[in-house]
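Re-run with default settings, no changes from the original entry. Doing this only to confirm the output is reproducible before filing.
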Amino acid sequence: MPDNGTDFGPGVYIARHLRRTLADAEELLDQALTAGAARNDGSGVARLDEWMLAHPHRDFLRGAIFGTNMETVERLLRSCRDLTTGLALALDANGELRTSLFVLQRALGEAVMRLCYIMDAEVPPARSLARMAAYQIESIEGNLAAADSFGSHAVEEAVRIKASILELQRRLAKGGFELTPDTRRPTLTAAVTLDGQRENIKFNATDAFKKYVPGSSWQWELGSGVTHSRGWMLSSIVPTVETEAPGTVIDLVVGVGLVVFDLADAVARVAFSHTGVDVDWFLKKVHSRRRGAISWTSSHPNLVGHVEYASRSPEFKAETGHLGASFQRPAQPPSTSRNPAIAGPEPLR
């Protein structure tokens, strides 16, 4: 029984597993910090560091961009911990809370997607740094829109923010970045380019979900439906006095739990590709919890081991229906992989 005295059920069961996954994730991230500091051969951070050292603006890139990005990553990870804890508390209610589950899931998903996007070791180093710079620009320029929404109550704040924007733009231009002005608001930035690698300031969460969690990319649309109170979504999960909601408690809590497990796998994948840390132990644990969550459904597939499951493409179909690839990962070259066991076989086509 949980500490709050809630009766045991699928929500409480999955909440326990989310808390255990969160504890495992914190342990994994501690290991990733150690591995990252070691600059393992073939890791994303080693390639990035080598590239920055050879760049004419290396001091600026390593300090103002990469160094600041470490704070960005820490904030994203702390946000993920916060949102996962909130999800576990909501799941303890065993279906009494419905819309909040999807809203929290959506927010968690976007935080993880931004993390994967910024730390993606598959893109060229210049593009990684452009993404880091884009996040910085978005963070500061976004403050102006927030201040403008307060109207006359934030005039002085808006003046201060505009000065900060000009200073950041000046520093980036001096540090080797090219800034593309926004056509509607020329004082703001639409895109940033470093050594020919261009990134838009606006983050495309939909595309990120399709790339980093292909087996669960649909969850973004569901979370958006609840967040914006769209009728097609609310009528599926929220009952009325006269009408039952089609979505059962098991459907809701298991669906949300499986997505969070997929997001945990995405964090592990980016930790592995960026630092070379061993993540196989983590993926095995998450996969066992995935099995347990699915066991609550009346009809569920016989899940294979985590390596084979991860190697399947999003288009893979089992005899009983779509199984997906909830933690599909890119294959790592044998010569550079620090943990080839997690790469698995080539994806089935």
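The two ends are 45 Å apart (CA to CA). The mean pLDDT is 84.
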